[in-house]
Specification:
The chain has 2 helices and 8 strands, in the order βαββββαβββ. The protein is α/β, with parallel strands linked by helices.
Length: about 140
């Protein structure tokens, strides 16, 4: 089953973005259109598109993008190897927005424990890599 929502990230340099998402985070290219500077990626069911537009007319709003891109949002990607990814990201010297942490989030009458960190991609999009480790009841 395909995801019901797939974000498309405008990037300033597709090659740098592919090095980040594919080379560092372990996404794979499902398909690409090099002539359009476009790639469709997947990592364990988390899918996203990357595009480096040739012209400004493909952007919304039709104004210059200024780093960091994607202000006001972050993309959460559930993974099974968050600690290993954190080590890789640190070794690559990339800007960590939120260091590795354990956090509990309430959902109805339970709390979900996650280990997570947030890193900026080459254009400044915030990527939250998260791994669940436990669920516990909320004491009323």
């Amino acid at each position: 089953m395909r995801p019901l929502i797939v974000p498309e990230l405008i990037c300033s340099d597709l090659d740098k973005s592919l090095a980040f998402y594919v080379g560092l985070l372990g996404f794979r290219i499902l398909y690409d259109r090099p002539e359009d500077r476009f790639a469709y990626l997947d990592r364990g069911g988390a899918e996203l598109m990357l595009e480096q537009p040739h012209a400004q007319d493909r952007l919304w709003p039709r104004a210059p993008l200024e780093p960091p891109f994607g202000r006001g949002m972050n993309l959460q990607i559930r993974v099974e190897d968050v600690e290993a990814l954190y080590v890789k990201v640190l070794a690559a010297g990339l800007p960590i927005f939120l260091p590795l942490e354990d956090r509990w989030y309430r959902r109805d009458d339970a709390e979900i424990g996650v280990r997570q960190f947030v890193v900026q991609d080459p254009d400044g999009y915030l990527i939250r890599l998260q791994q669940r480790f436990a669920t516990r009841s909320v004491q009323g």
